[in-house]
Amino acid sequence: MTDDRLTVPVSDRFREAAADWGDNRLMDEDDALETKAEQALLEIEHLVADATEVEFAVEDGAIHHYPSDDLAAFLEKQAGAYGLEPADVLAMHVDLFARAFLEGEETESADPDDPRPW
Length: 118
Description:
The protein is mostly helical. About 50% of the residues lie in helices and about 10% in strands. Helix 1 (about 10-25) packs across helix 2 and helix 2 packs across helix 4.
């Protein structure tokens, strides 16, 4: 695990998605925001590094994440290719997962006999 913490602001889109998700589970906004941040970071870490745990905190309107070495290298590469900072690239990836796991927004399977809701 790298020592470099990446900080990304919580976007309005992410905050709204967390609030919607939390409302469906009777969670307060802070708990929902933390859970949605964990979901997003886990998805990103899992896709890039096959990780199953993340180290992060949500404070002061931002998500602070300690990326795995694999994710840090991936973000550095993408950042370099587009002239961005790694935290900016992470912010874009986090926002991509903002609305993941919300009821009513899952896509249906192409197979009508498939019982999965996605």
